[in-house]
Design a protein that fits this description.
Layout (H helix, E strand, L loop, with lengths): L21 E2 L3 E4 L1 E4 L2 E9 L16 H30 L1 H15 L1 H12 L5 H19 L2 H21 L14 E5 L4 H6 L5 E6 L7 H9 L3 E3 L4 H4 L5 E5 L4 E4 L3 H22 L15 E6 L5 H6 L4 E6 L1 H5 L7 H14 L4 E5 L28 H6 L1 H20 L3 E6 L5 H20 L9 E5 L2 H5 L1 H4 L5 E4 L1 H9 L17 H17 L3 E3 L7 H9 L4 E4 L4 H9 L3 H12 L4 H15 L10
Parallel strand pairs: 4-5, 5-6, 6-7, 10-11, 10-17, 11-12, 12-13, 13-14, 14-15, 15-16
Antiparallel strand pairs: 1-2, 2-9, 3-7, 4-8, 8-9
Helix pairs in contact: 1-2, 1-5, 2-5, 3-4, 4-5, 12-14, 14-15, 20-22, 20-23
The structure holds phosphoenolpyruvate and magnesium ion.
The site of magnesium ion has 4 residues, from helix 18.
Protein backbone atom coordinates (compact mmCIF):
# COMPACT_ATOMS: atom_id res chain seq x y z
CA UNK A 1 0.00 0.00 0.00
CA UNK A 2 1.35 3.41 -0.86
CA UNK A 3 1.53 6.06 1.77
CA UNK A 4 -0.69 8.19 -0.44
CA UNK A 5 -3.38 9.18 1.94
CA UNK A 6 -6.26 9.96 -0.42
CA UNK A 7 -7.28 6.54 -1.64
CA UNK A 8 -6.53 5.17 -5.06
CA UNK A 9 -7.75 6.46 -8.40
CA UNK A 10 -10.52 4.80 -10.29
CA UNK A 11 -11.73 5.68 -13.69
CA UNK A 12 -15.33 6.35 -14.26
CA UNK A 13 -17.25 6.02 -17.47
CA UNK A 14 -20.18 8.27 -18.15
CA UNK A 15 -22.41 9.98 -20.63
CA UNK A 16 -20.96 12.01 -23.47
CA UNK A 17 -19.51 15.38 -22.61
CA UNK A 18 -22.78 17.22 -22.89
CA UNK A 19 -22.13 20.00 -20.41
CA UNK A 20 -18.80 21.26 -21.58
CA UNK A 21 -18.77 24.97 -22.23
CA UNK A 22 -16.53 24.81 -25.25
CA UNK A 23 -15.56 22.09 -27.65
CA UNK A 24 -12.27 23.01 -29.17
CA UNK A 25 -10.86 19.51 -29.04
CA UNK A 26 -10.63 19.65 -25.28
CA UNK A 27 -13.03 20.10 -22.39
CA UNK A 28 -13.52 23.41 -20.61
CA UNK A 29 -15.95 23.45 -17.75
CA UNK A 30 -17.28 26.38 -15.83
CA UNK A 31 -17.54 26.32 -12.07
CA UNK A 32 -17.20 28.85 -9.30
CA UNK A 33 -13.87 30.58 -8.76
CA UNK A 34 -13.05 29.95 -5.12
CA UNK A 35 -9.31 30.44 -4.76
CA UNK A 36 -7.36 32.63 -7.18
CA UNK A 37 -4.41 31.76 -9.37
CA UNK A 38 -3.71 29.37 -12.20
CA UNK A 39 -2.34 25.83 -11.90
CA UNK A 40 -1.45 23.31 -14.60
CA UNK A 41 -0.78 19.75 -13.46
CA UNK A 42 -1.63 16.11 -13.60
CA UNK A 43 -5.08 15.11 -12.46
CA UNK A 44 -5.45 12.84 -9.52
CA UNK A 45 -9.06 11.73 -9.36
CA UNK A 46 -10.41 10.97 -5.95
CA UNK A 47 -13.38 8.95 -6.98
CA UNK A 48 -15.75 7.15 -4.79
CA UNK A 49 -15.75 3.61 -5.99
CA UNK A 50 -16.09 2.29 -9.43
CA UNK A 51 -18.08 -0.79 -10.02
CA UNK A 52 -18.85 -2.02 -13.47
CA UNK A 53 -22.62 -1.76 -13.92
CA UNK A 54 -22.56 -5.24 -15.44
CA UNK A 55 -20.68 -6.51 -12.48
CA UNK A 56 -20.17 -10.17 -12.28
CA UNK A 57 -21.56 -12.28 -9.45
CA UNK A 58 -19.27 -14.48 -7.43
CA UNK A 59 -19.15 -18.20 -7.97
CA UNK A 60 -19.94 -20.22 -4.83
CA UNK A 61 -16.33 -21.21 -4.39
CA UNK A 62 -15.23 -17.54 -4.44
CA UNK A 63 -17.36 -16.41 -1.52
CA UNK A 64 -15.02 -17.41 1.30
CA UNK A 65 -12.05 -15.72 -0.34
CA UNK A 66 -14.09 -12.56 -0.94
CA UNK A 67 -15.17 -12.45 2.71
CA UNK A 68 -11.55 -12.79 3.71
CA UNK A 69 -10.57 -9.91 1.37
CA UNK A 70 -13.16 -7.74 3.09
CA UNK A 71 -11.92 -8.64 6.57
CA UNK A 72 -8.30 -8.03 5.60
CA UNK A 73 -9.15 -4.65 4.10
CA UNK A 74 -11.19 -3.77 7.17
CA UNK A 75 -8.34 -4.57 9.54
CA UNK A 76 -5.89 -2.65 7.38
CA UNK A 77 -8.13 0.42 7.23
CA UNK A 78 -8.71 0.28 10.99
CA UNK A 79 -4.96 0.30 11.41
CA UNK A 80 -4.58 3.22 8.96
CA UNK A 81 -7.21 5.16 10.85
CA UNK A 82 -5.56 4.54 14.18
CA UNK A 83 -2.21 5.67 12.78
CA UNK A 84 -3.81 8.75 11.23
CA UNK A 85 -5.57 9.54 14.47
CA UNK A 86 -2.32 9.28 16.40
CA UNK A 87 -0.50 11.46 13.93
CA UNK A 88 -3.16 14.15 13.86
CA UNK A 89 -3.48 14.01 17.62
CA UNK A 90 0.23 14.60 17.89
CA UNK A 91 0.26 17.40 15.33
CA UNK A 92 -3.01 19.11 16.13
CA UNK A 93 -4.48 17.65 19.28
CA UNK A 94 -7.26 15.25 20.28
CA UNK A 95 -10.15 17.36 19.02
CA UNK A 96 -8.97 17.42 15.42
CA UNK A 97 -8.13 13.72 15.56
CA UNK A 98 -11.48 12.64 16.94
CA UNK A 99 -13.10 12.34 13.51
CA UNK A 100 -10.89 9.34 12.74
CA UNK A 101 -12.16 7.62 15.88
CA UNK A 102 -15.70 8.12 14.54
CA UNK A 103 -14.64 6.54 11.25
CA UNK A 104 -13.08 3.58 13.01
CA UNK A 105 -16.23 3.04 15.05
CA UNK A 106 -18.23 2.97 11.80
CA UNK A 107 -15.92 0.37 10.41
CA UNK A 108 -16.53 -1.80 13.44
CA UNK A 109 -20.28 -1.26 13.44
CA UNK A 110 -22.09 -4.60 13.18
CA UNK A 111 -24.93 -3.20 11.05
CA UNK A 112 -22.36 -1.99 8.55
CA UNK A 113 -20.26 -5.15 8.43
CA UNK A 114 -23.27 -7.47 8.68
CA UNK A 115 -24.83 -6.01 5.55
CA UNK A 116 -21.65 -6.25 3.53
CA UNK A 117 -21.07 -9.83 4.62
CA UNK A 118 -24.65 -10.77 3.85
CA UNK A 119 -24.51 -9.31 0.32
CA UNK A 120 -21.29 -11.16 -0.37
CA UNK A 121 -22.60 -14.43 1.06
CA UNK A 122 -26.24 -14.39 0.03
CA UNK A 123 -26.28 -12.23 -3.10
CA UNK A 124 -22.84 -13.23 -4.36
CA UNK A 125 -21.73 -9.61 -4.65
CA UNK A 126 -18.02 -8.88 -4.99
CA UNK A 127 -16.99 -6.81 -1.97
CA UNK A 128 -16.57 -3.58 -4.02
CA UNK A 129 -20.14 -3.92 -5.26
CA UNK A 130 -21.38 -4.64 -1.75
CA UNK A 131 -19.67 -1.47 -0.51
CA UNK A 132 -21.21 0.58 -3.27
CA UNK A 133 -24.63 -0.80 -2.45
CA UNK A 134 -24.10 0.03 1.21
CA UNK A 135 -23.18 3.60 0.37
CA UNK A 136 -26.16 4.03 -1.94
CA UNK A 137 -28.58 2.51 0.54
CA UNK A 138 -27.44 4.60 3.49
CA UNK A 139 -27.24 7.78 1.43
CA UNK A 140 -30.86 7.30 0.38
CA UNK A 141 -32.05 6.32 3.86
CA UNK A 142 -30.20 9.12 5.64
CA UNK A 143 -31.31 11.74 3.13
CA UNK A 144 -34.94 10.71 3.42
CA UNK A 145 -35.02 11.10 7.19
CA UNK A 146 -34.38 14.85 6.95
CA UNK A 147 -32.32 14.33 10.09
CA UNK A 148 -29.31 16.61 10.02
CA UNK A 149 -27.23 14.32 12.20
CA UNK A 150 -27.66 11.40 9.85
CA UNK A 151 -27.07 13.55 6.80
CA UNK A 152 -23.78 14.70 8.24
CA UNK A 153 -22.78 11.07 8.63
CA UNK A 154 -23.08 10.40 4.88
CA UNK A 155 -19.75 12.03 4.10
CA UNK A 156 -18.15 10.08 6.96
CA UNK A 157 -19.51 6.83 5.58
CA UNK A 158 -18.26 7.77 2.13
CA UNK A 159 -14.84 8.45 3.55
CA UNK A 160 -14.75 5.01 5.18
CA UNK A 161 -15.97 3.27 2.03
CA UNK A 162 -13.35 5.02 -0.09
CA UNK A 163 -10.62 3.86 2.26
CA UNK A 164 -11.91 0.31 2.14
CA UNK A 165 -12.17 0.23 -1.61
CA UNK A 166 -8.71 1.73 -1.82
CA UNK A 167 -7.35 -1.16 0.20
CA UNK A 168 -9.17 -3.62 -2.02
CA UNK A 169 -7.93 -2.03 -5.19
CA UNK A 170 -5.51 -3.82 -7.44
CA UNK A 171 -4.30 -0.64 -9.07
CA UNK A 172 -3.05 1.03 -5.97
CA UNK A 173 0.64 0.46 -6.52
CA UNK A 174 0.63 1.32 -10.17
CA UNK A 175 -0.49 4.90 -9.90
CA UNK A 176 1.55 6.41 -7.15
CA UNK A 177 0.90 10.11 -7.08
CA UNK A 178 4.50 10.63 -6.08
CA UNK A 179 5.35 9.64 -9.62
CA UNK A 180 2.89 12.10 -11.02
CA UNK A 181 4.62 15.25 -9.77
CA UNK A 182 2.52 18.33 -9.08
CA UNK A 183 -1.05 17.21 -8.65
CA UNK A 184 -4.43 18.71 -9.37
CA UNK A 185 -6.91 17.09 -7.05
CA UNK A 186 -10.18 16.34 -8.81
CA UNK A 187 -12.90 15.25 -6.44
CA UNK A 188 -16.58 15.31 -5.78
CA UNK A 189 -15.88 17.15 -2.56
CA UNK A 190 -12.97 17.34 -0.17
CA UNK A 191 -13.44 15.10 2.82
CA UNK A 192 -11.94 15.66 6.28
CA UNK A 193 -9.22 13.06 5.79
CA UNK A 194 -8.20 14.50 2.43
CA UNK A 195 -7.73 17.90 3.93
CA UNK A 196 -5.47 16.59 6.66
CA UNK A 197 -3.35 14.89 4.02
CA UNK A 198 -3.04 17.91 1.70
CA UNK A 199 0.25 18.96 3.22
CA UNK A 200 1.94 15.68 2.49
CA UNK A 201 1.82 15.82 -1.26
CA UNK A 202 2.46 18.40 -3.89
CA UNK A 203 -1.08 19.60 -4.50
CA UNK A 204 -1.04 22.68 -6.73
CA UNK A 205 -4.72 22.92 -7.67
CA UNK A 206 -8.14 21.68 -6.62
CA UNK A 207 -11.28 21.14 -8.69
CA UNK A 208 -14.45 19.81 -7.11
CA UNK A 209 -17.94 18.99 -8.29
CA UNK A 210 -19.59 20.19 -5.09
CA UNK A 211 -19.05 23.32 -3.09
CA UNK A 212 -19.05 27.06 -3.27
CA UNK A 213 -16.90 30.00 -2.19
CA UNK A 214 -17.59 29.41 1.48
CA UNK A 215 -17.45 25.62 1.58
CA UNK A 216 -14.83 23.70 3.48
CA UNK A 217 -12.70 22.98 0.40
CA UNK A 218 -12.72 26.64 -0.64
CA UNK A 219 -11.68 27.91 2.75
CA UNK A 220 -8.88 25.35 2.99
CA UNK A 221 -7.66 26.03 -0.56
CA UNK A 222 -7.56 29.76 0.05
CA UNK A 223 -5.80 29.37 3.35
CA UNK A 224 -3.06 27.37 1.57
CA UNK A 225 -2.93 29.65 -1.48
CA UNK A 226 -3.90 26.82 -3.83
CA UNK A 227 -5.92 27.83 -6.94
CA UNK A 228 -9.32 26.13 -6.81
CA UNK A 229 -12.59 25.89 -8.68
CA UNK A 230 -15.72 24.33 -7.16
CA UNK A 231 -19.22 23.50 -8.28
CA UNK A 232 -18.10 21.96 -11.59
CA UNK A 233 -20.88 19.59 -12.59
CA UNK A 234 -20.01 16.09 -13.78
CA UNK A 235 -16.31 16.86 -13.75
CA UNK A 236 -15.33 13.37 -12.67
CA UNK A 237 -16.93 11.94 -15.78
CA UNK A 238 -14.61 13.91 -17.95
CA UNK A 239 -11.27 13.65 -16.21
CA UNK A 240 -9.19 10.64 -15.44
CA UNK A 241 -6.06 10.32 -13.37
CA UNK A 242 -3.08 11.25 -15.47
CA UNK A 243 -4.90 13.82 -17.64
CA UNK A 244 -3.44 17.28 -17.88
CA UNK A 245 -5.75 19.68 -16.10
CA UNK A 246 -5.75 23.44 -15.77
CA UNK A 247 -7.44 25.07 -12.80
CA UNK A 248 -8.12 28.72 -13.48
CA UNK A 249 -9.12 30.02 -10.08
CA UNK A 250 -9.68 33.58 -11.30
CA UNK A 251 -12.44 32.83 -13.79
CA UNK A 252 -13.64 29.52 -12.32
CA UNK A 253 -12.73 27.39 -15.33
CA UNK A 254 -11.33 23.86 -15.42
CA UNK A 255 -9.73 22.71 -18.67
CA UNK A 256 -8.99 19.07 -19.39
CA UNK A 257 -6.22 18.09 -21.81
CA UNK A 258 -5.93 21.52 -23.45
CA UNK A 259 -4.54 21.74 -26.99
CA UNK A 260 -0.92 22.91 -27.30
CA UNK A 261 -1.88 26.52 -27.87
CA UNK A 262 -4.15 26.77 -24.83
CA UNK A 263 -1.68 24.80 -22.75
CA UNK A 264 1.17 27.12 -23.52
CA UNK A 265 -0.98 30.17 -22.72
CA UNK A 266 -1.98 28.63 -19.40
CA UNK A 267 1.59 27.58 -18.59
CA UNK A 268 2.64 31.17 -19.12
CA UNK A 269 -0.07 32.37 -16.75
CA UNK A 270 0.88 29.73 -14.22
CA UNK A 271 4.52 30.80 -14.34
CA UNK A 272 3.43 34.39 -13.78
CA UNK A 273 1.25 33.30 -10.87
CA UNK A 274 4.01 31.26 -9.19
CA UNK A 275 6.54 34.01 -9.81
CA UNK A 276 4.18 36.58 -8.38
CA UNK A 277 3.55 34.46 -5.30
CA UNK A 278 7.30 34.03 -4.71
CA UNK A 279 7.96 37.68 -5.30
CA UNK A 280 5.20 38.73 -2.94
CA UNK A 281 6.16 36.20 -0.27
CA UNK A 282 9.59 37.82 -0.19
CA UNK A 283 7.87 40.94 1.16
CA UNK A 284 6.55 39.16 4.16
CA UNK A 285 8.84 40.82 6.67
CA UNK A 286 8.26 44.31 5.32
CA UNK A 287 5.89 46.49 7.34
CA UNK A 288 2.37 46.82 5.95
CA UNK A 289 2.12 50.47 4.94
CA UNK A 290 0.52 52.56 2.27
CA UNK A 291 2.61 54.65 -0.12
CA UNK A 292 1.95 57.68 2.14
CA UNK A 293 3.14 55.71 5.17
CA UNK A 294 -0.18 54.92 6.81
CA UNK A 295 0.40 51.82 8.98
CA UNK A 296 -1.99 48.94 8.27
CA UNK A 297 -2.85 45.87 10.26
CA UNK A 298 -2.99 42.81 7.99
CA UNK A 299 -4.26 39.88 10.02
CA UNK A 300 -5.02 36.26 9.19
CA UNK A 301 -8.27 34.29 9.30
CA UNK A 302 -7.62 30.76 10.55
CA UNK A 303 -9.83 27.75 11.09
CA UNK A 304 -7.52 25.74 13.29
CA UNK A 305 -3.90 25.09 14.22
CA UNK A 306 -3.12 23.77 10.75
CA UNK A 307 -3.60 27.22 9.22
CA UNK A 308 -1.32 29.06 11.62
CA UNK A 309 2.00 28.26 9.87
CA UNK A 310 0.57 29.79 6.67
CA UNK A 311 -0.36 32.92 8.62
CA UNK A 312 3.22 33.19 9.88
CA UNK A 313 4.76 32.43 6.48
CA UNK A 314 2.64 35.01 4.74
CA UNK A 315 3.63 37.73 7.19
CA UNK A 316 0.36 38.18 9.11
CA UNK A 317 0.54 40.66 11.98
CA UNK A 318 -1.74 38.49 14.14
CA UNK A 319 -4.89 36.38 13.99
CA UNK A 320 -7.89 38.58 13.23
CA UNK A 321 -10.43 35.76 13.14
CA UNK A 322 -10.14 32.28 14.56
CA UNK A 323 -13.26 30.36 13.53
CA UNK A 324 -13.68 27.91 16.40
CA UNK A 325 -16.50 25.97 14.73
CA UNK A 326 -14.05 23.67 12.95
CA UNK A 327 -13.08 22.31 16.35
CA UNK A 328 -16.71 21.35 16.90
CA UNK A 329 -17.35 20.14 13.36
CA UNK A 330 -14.60 17.55 13.59
CA UNK A 331 -15.55 16.38 17.05
CA UNK A 332 -18.04 13.61 17.82
CA UNK A 333 -19.44 15.51 20.82
CA UNK A 334 -18.99 18.84 22.61
CA UNK A 335 -15.26 19.39 23.12
CA UNK A 336 -14.56 19.76 26.83
CA UNK A 337 -13.28 23.01 28.35
CA UNK A 338 -9.78 21.54 28.70
CA UNK A 339 -9.75 20.27 25.12
CA UNK A 340 -10.79 23.70 23.89
CA UNK A 341 -8.25 25.40 26.10
CA UNK A 342 -5.48 23.15 24.75
CA UNK A 343 -6.37 24.00 21.14
CA UNK A 344 -6.67 27.74 21.84
CA UNK A 345 -3.31 27.68 23.63
CA UNK A 346 -1.68 25.91 20.70
CA UNK A 347 -2.96 28.56 18.33
CA UNK A 348 -1.98 31.44 20.61
CA UNK A 349 1.48 30.03 21.12
CA UNK A 350 2.27 29.54 17.43
CA UNK A 351 0.42 32.61 16.11
CA UNK A 352 2.39 35.42 14.50
CA UNK A 353 2.23 38.84 16.17
CA UNK A 354 0.61 39.40 19.51
CA UNK A 355 -3.13 39.71 18.96
CA UNK A 356 -5.50 36.72 18.56
CA UNK A 357 -9.23 37.19 18.12
CA UNK A 358 -11.22 34.08 19.01
CA UNK A 359 -14.76 33.91 17.69
CA UNK A 360 -17.28 31.83 19.61
CA UNK A 361 -19.11 29.06 17.82
CA UNK A 362 -20.73 30.18 14.57
CA UNK A 363 -22.70 27.14 13.65
CA UNK A 364 -25.96 26.70 11.77
CA UNK A 365 -26.81 27.80 8.26
CA UNK A 366 -24.77 25.39 6.17
CA UNK A 367 -22.71 24.07 9.07
CA UNK A 368 -24.56 21.87 11.51
CA UNK A 369 -23.41 20.17 14.66
CA UNK A 370 -26.00 17.51 15.48
CA UNK A 371 -25.07 17.16 19.14
CA UNK A 372 -26.11 20.78 19.65
CA UNK A 373 -29.66 20.06 18.69
CA UNK A 374 -29.67 20.37 14.91
CA UNK A 375 -31.93 17.40 14.52
CA UNK A 376 -34.36 18.87 12.05
CA UNK A 377 -33.81 20.94 9.00
CA UNK A 378 -35.13 24.46 9.17
CA UNK A 379 -36.96 26.09 6.29
CA UNK A 380 -34.54 29.04 6.36
CA UNK A 381 -31.38 27.88 8.07
CA UNK A 382 -29.35 31.05 7.43
CA UNK A 383 -32.09 33.16 8.99
CA UNK A 384 -32.89 30.68 11.68
CA UNK A 385 -31.32 29.09 14.65
CA UNK A 386 -27.67 29.74 14.00
CA UNK A 387 -24.62 31.25 15.57
CA UNK A 388 -25.09 33.33 18.72
CA UNK A 389 -28.81 32.43 18.75
CA UNK A 390 -27.93 28.80 19.21
CA UNK A 391 -25.27 29.58 21.81
CA UNK A 392 -27.84 31.47 23.91
CA UNK A 393 -30.05 28.39 24.00
CA UNK A 394 -27.20 26.25 25.25
CA UNK A 395 -25.89 28.32 28.16
CA UNK A 396 -23.98 25.35 29.60
CA UNK A 397 -21.91 24.77 26.47
CA UNK A 398 -21.66 28.49 25.69
CA UNK A 399 -20.30 29.19 29.15
CA UNK A 400 -17.78 26.38 28.72
CA UNK A 401 -16.45 28.00 25.57
CA UNK A 402 -16.29 31.48 27.11
CA UNK A 403 -14.46 30.05 30.14
CA UNK A 404 -11.97 28.28 27.88
CA UNK A 405 -11.33 31.55 26.01
CA UNK A 406 -10.83 33.55 29.23
CA UNK A 407 -8.40 30.91 30.48
CA UNK A 408 -6.59 30.96 27.13
CA UNK A 409 -6.35 34.76 27.48
CA UNK A 410 -4.43 34.27 30.69
CA UNK A 411 -2.03 31.99 28.84
CA UNK A 412 -1.72 34.59 26.06
CA UNK A 413 -0.79 37.24 28.56
CA UNK A 414 1.81 34.98 30.14
CA UNK A 415 3.67 34.87 26.82
CA UNK A 416 3.24 38.55 26.01
CA UNK A 417 0.22 38.26 23.72
CA UNK A 418 -3.39 39.40 23.90
CA UNK A 419 -6.54 37.40 23.19
CA UNK A 420 -9.89 39.00 22.33
CA UNK A 421 -13.33 37.40 22.24
CA UNK A 422 -15.65 37.94 19.30
CA UNK A 423 -19.36 37.12 19.14
CA UNK A 424 -20.87 36.27 15.75
CA UNK A 425 -24.14 37.40 14.19
CA UNK A 426 -25.10 40.00 16.77
CA UNK A 427 -28.45 41.57 15.83
CA UNK A 428 -29.31 43.99 18.63
CA UNK A 429 -28.29 45.60 21.89
CA UNK A 430 -30.04 43.01 24.06
CA UNK A 431 -27.79 40.34 22.61
CA UNK A 432 -24.68 42.36 23.35
CA UNK A 433 -25.85 42.85 26.93
CA UNK A 434 -26.47 39.14 27.24
CA UNK A 435 -23.02 38.18 25.99
CA UNK A 436 -21.43 40.68 28.34
CA UNK A 437 -23.40 39.05 31.18
CA UNK A 438 -22.11 35.66 30.05
CA UNK A 439 -18.50 36.82 30.02
CA UNK A 440 -18.95 38.30 33.53
CA UNK A 441 -20.47 35.05 34.78
CA UNK A 442 -17.67 32.94 33.31
CA UNK A 443 -15.11 35.20 35.01
CA UNK A 444 -16.83 34.93 38.40
CA UNK A 445 -16.99 31.15 38.14
CA UNK A 446 -13.31 30.90 37.27
CA UNK A 447 -12.43 33.20 40.13
CA UNK A 448 -14.42 31.07 42.60
CA UNK A 449 -12.71 27.97 41.27
CA UNK A 450 -9.33 29.68 41.54
CA UNK A 451 -8.55 29.05 37.89
CA UNK A 452 -6.31 31.58 36.17
CA UNK A 453 -8.11 33.76 33.61
CA UNK A 454 -8.00 37.23 32.10
CA UNK A 455 -10.73 39.66 31.15
CA UNK A 456 -10.65 40.30 27.42
CA UNK A 457 -11.85 42.96 24.97
CA UNK A 458 -15.36 41.99 23.82
CA UNK A 459 -16.24 42.40 20.16
CA UNK A 460 -19.19 41.90 17.86
CA UNK A 461 -19.30 40.61 14.32
CA UNK A 462 -21.20 43.10 12.23
CA UNK A 463 -22.99 40.89 9.71
CA UNK A 464 -26.70 41.51 10.18
CA UNK A 465 -28.21 44.54 8.41
CA UNK A 466 -30.21 45.47 11.54
CA UNK A 467 -26.96 45.83 13.46
CA UNK A 468 -25.44 47.87 10.65
CA UNK A 469 -28.37 50.28 10.67
CA UNK A 470 -28.23 50.68 14.43
CA UNK A 471 -24.46 50.54 14.79
CA UNK A 472 -24.31 53.86 16.65
CA UNK A 473 -26.58 52.42 19.35
CA UNK A 474 -24.57 49.25 19.66
CA UNK A 475 -21.11 50.78 19.85
CA UNK A 476 -21.37 51.76 23.51
CA UNK A 477 -21.58 48.07 24.45
CA UNK A 478 -18.65 46.77 22.44
CA UNK A 479 -14.88 47.13 22.71
CA UNK A 480 -14.30 46.44 19.02
CA UNK A 481 -16.13 45.58 15.81
CA UNK A 482 -15.32 43.01 13.16
CA UNK A 483 -17.26 43.33 9.94
CA UNK A 484 -18.27 39.96 8.50
CA UNK A 485 -18.86 41.04 4.94
CA UNK A 486 -19.61 37.49 3.71
CA UNK A 487 -22.77 37.32 5.76
CA UNK A 488 -23.53 41.03 5.71
CA UNK A 489 -23.70 40.95 1.91
CA UNK A 490 -25.95 37.90 1.74
CA UNK A 491 -28.37 39.34 4.29
CA UNK A 492 -28.33 42.82 2.82
CA UNK A 493 -28.95 41.56 -0.70
CA UNK A 494 -31.29 38.72 0.36
CA UNK A 495 -29.12 36.41 -1.74
CA UNK A 496 -27.74 33.16 -0.32
CA UNK A 497 -23.94 33.28 -0.32
CA UNK A 498 -23.77 29.60 -1.33
CA UNK A 499 -26.33 29.62 -4.12
CA UNK A 500 -24.77 30.07 -7.58
CA UNK A 501 -28.19 31.03 -8.98
CA UNK A 502 -28.18 34.30 -7.06
CA UNK A 503 -24.47 35.00 -7.08
CA UNK A 504 -25.05 37.95 -9.42
CA UNK A 505 -26.84 39.61 -6.48
CA UNK A 506 -24.57 38.48 -3.66
CA UNK A 507 -21.95 41.05 -4.62
CA UNK A 508 -19.85 42.93 -2.08
CA UNK A 509 -18.91 45.56 -4.66
CA UNK A 510 -22.52 46.62 -5.21
CA UNK A 511 -23.71 50.18 -4.44
CA UNK A 512 -25.84 49.31 -1.37
CA UNK A 513 -23.11 47.25 0.23
CA UNK A 514 -20.55 50.01 -0.25
CA UNK A 515 -22.97 52.54 1.28
CA UNK A 516 -23.49 50.40 4.37
CA UNK A 517 -19.80 49.58 4.79
CA UNK A 518 -18.83 53.22 4.53
CA UNK A 519 -21.36 54.22 7.15
CA UNK A 520 -20.39 51.47 9.60
CA UNK A 521 -16.67 52.22 9.30
CA UNK A 522 -17.31 55.92 9.76
CA UNK A 523 -19.46 55.28 12.86
CA UNK A 524 -16.75 53.12 14.45
CA UNK A 525 -14.05 55.65 13.73
CA UNK A 526 -16.12 58.51 15.15
CA UNK A 527 -16.72 56.50 18.32
CA UNK A 528 -13.03 55.57 18.55
CA UNK A 529 -13.80 51.84 18.42
CA UNK A 530 -11.28 49.60 16.67
CA UNK A 531 -12.81 48.11 13.52
CA UNK A 532 -11.56 45.29 11.28
CA UNK A 533 -13.14 43.69 8.23
CA UNK A 534 -12.69 39.91 8.17
CA UNK A 535 -14.84 38.80 5.23
CA UNK A 536 -13.37 37.68 1.91
CA UNK A 537 -13.60 41.24 0.59
CA UNK A 538 -10.59 42.29 2.70
CA UNK A 539 -8.23 40.06 0.72
CA UNK A 540 -9.44 41.01 -2.75
CA UNK A 541 -7.52 43.82 -4.43
CA UNK A 542 -10.62 45.76 -5.53
CA UNK A 543 -12.23 45.31 -2.13
CA UNK A 544 -9.12 46.43 -0.31
CA UNK A 545 -8.92 49.66 -2.33
CA UNK A 546 -12.46 50.75 -1.49
CA UNK A 547 -12.12 49.77 2.16
CA UNK A 548 -8.90 51.74 2.48
CA UNK A 549 -10.74 54.62 0.84
CA UNK A 550 -13.35 54.37 3.60
CA UNK A 551 -10.61 54.88 6.19
CA UNK A 552 -10.26 51.25 7.27
CA UNK A 553 -6.77 50.31 8.43
CA UNK A 554 -7.30 46.82 9.86
CA UNK A 555 -8.02 43.84 7.59
CA UNK A 556 -8.25 40.12 8.31
CA UNK A 557 -8.08 37.63 5.45
CA UNK A 558 -7.01 34.19 4.27
CA UNK A 559 -3.25 34.16 4.87
CA UNK A 560 -2.47 33.62 1.19
CA UNK A 561 -3.86 37.05 0.32
CA UNK A 562 -1.70 39.01 2.74
CA UNK A 563 1.40 39.43 0.53
CA UNK A 564 -0.57 40.75 -2.43
CA UNK A 565 -2.51 43.20 -0.29
CA UNK A 566 0.74 44.38 1.27
CA UNK A 567 2.15 44.93 -2.20
CA UNK A 568 -0.95 46.76 -3.40
CA UNK A 569 -0.97 48.99 -0.32
CA UNK A 570 2.64 49.97 -0.91
CA UNK A 571 1.66 51.46 -4.29
CA UNK A 572 -1.41 53.29 -3.05
CA UNK A 573 -1.85 56.44 -1.01
CA UNK A 574 -4.84 56.83 1.28
CA UNK A 575 -5.78 59.94 -0.70
CA UNK A 576 -5.81 58.02 -3.97
CA UNK A 577 -7.89 55.23 -2.38
CA UNK A 578 -10.39 57.83 -1.11
CA UNK A 579 -10.63 59.35 -4.60
CA UNK A 580 -11.21 55.93 -6.17
CA UNK A 581 -13.90 55.21 -3.59
CA UNK A 582 -15.58 58.54 -4.26
CA UNK A 583 -15.75 57.83 -8.01
CA UNK A 584 -16.96 54.27 -7.41
CA UNK A 585 -19.75 55.53 -5.16
CA UNK A 586 -21.06 57.68 -7.98
CA UNK A 587 -21.50 54.64 -10.21
CA UNK A 588 -24.89 53.03 -10.11
CA UNK A 589 -24.40 49.38 -11.04
CA UNK A 590 -22.20 46.62 -9.67
CA UNK A 591 -20.81 45.88 -13.13
CA UNK A 592 -19.70 49.50 -13.58
CA UNK A 593 -18.09 49.56 -10.15
CA UNK A 594 -16.23 46.31 -10.72
CA UNK A 595 -14.98 47.40 -14.13
CA UNK A 596 -13.88 50.76 -12.80
CA UNK A 597 -12.07 49.23 -9.83
CA UNK A 598 -10.37 46.62 -12.03
CA UNK A 599 -8.96 49.41 -14.17
CA UNK A 600 -7.75 51.26 -11.10
CA UNK A 601 -6.08 48.18 -9.59
CA UNK A 602 -4.46 47.41 -12.94
CA UNK A 603 -3.06 50.92 -13.03
CA UNK A 604 -1.80 50.91 -9.45
CA UNK A 605 -0.34 47.37 -9.46
CA UNK A 606 -0.71 45.74 -12.89
CA UNK A 607 0.62 42.31 -11.84
CA UNK A 608 -2.00 41.78 -9.17
CA UNK A 609 -4.96 41.19 -11.46
CA UNK A 610 -3.97 37.49 -11.47
CA UNK A 611 -4.94 37.35 -7.84
CA UNK A 612 -8.45 38.75 -8.00
CA UNK A 613 -11.54 36.56 -8.23
CA UNK A 614 -13.82 37.27 -11.18
C1 LIG B 1 -18.25 36.71 7.41
O1 LIG B 1 -19.45 36.42 7.49
O2 LIG B 1 -17.81 37.60 6.68
C2 LIG B 1 -17.26 35.96 8.19
C3 LIG B 1 -16.00 36.33 8.23
O3 LIG B 1 -17.66 34.87 8.85
P1 LIG B 1 -17.95 33.46 8.15
O4 LIG B 1 -17.40 33.51 6.76
O5 LIG B 1 -17.26 32.45 9.02
O6 LIG B 1 -19.43 33.37 8.21
MG1 LIG C 1 -20.19 35.19 9.06
Amino acid sequence: MSNWPFGSPRLVGGPPHSDRIATCGFVMKKGIAVSPGVAVGTAYCMLEIYVDPDRKRLADREVTAELARFETARDAVAQDLRALRKKVEHQLGPSEAAIFGVHEAMLRDSAFTGKVRSWITNDRFPVAAALQRLLQEYTRLFSETGDAYLQERISDLRDVVIRLSDRLSDVVNTEQPAMLGPIIIVADELLPSHVVALDEVNVIGIATQQGSQTSHAAIIARSRGIPAVSGVEHLLRQVKTGDTVVVDGRDGIVTVNPDPEALSAYLKLEREFVHLKDELAANRDLPARTADNQALQLLANVNGPLDVPAATNMGAAGIGLYRTEYLYLTHPDIPSEDEQLATYQRIIESAPGTSITIRTLDIGGDKTVPYLGHQHQEANPFMGWRSIRLSFEHPEFFLTQVRAILRAAHFAESIGKQARILFPMITNLEEMRRVRGMVGRAGRQLQNERLAYRTVPIGMMLEVPAAAVSIRMLLSSVDFVSIGSNDLVQYLMAADRDNPKVSHLCQPLSPPVLMVLRDVIQACREAGKPVTLCGELAGQPRGFVVLLGMGLTSFSMSPAFIPSIKELASHLTTKKAAEILERAMHLTTTAQIKRYLSRQVAEVAPNLSLLDLA
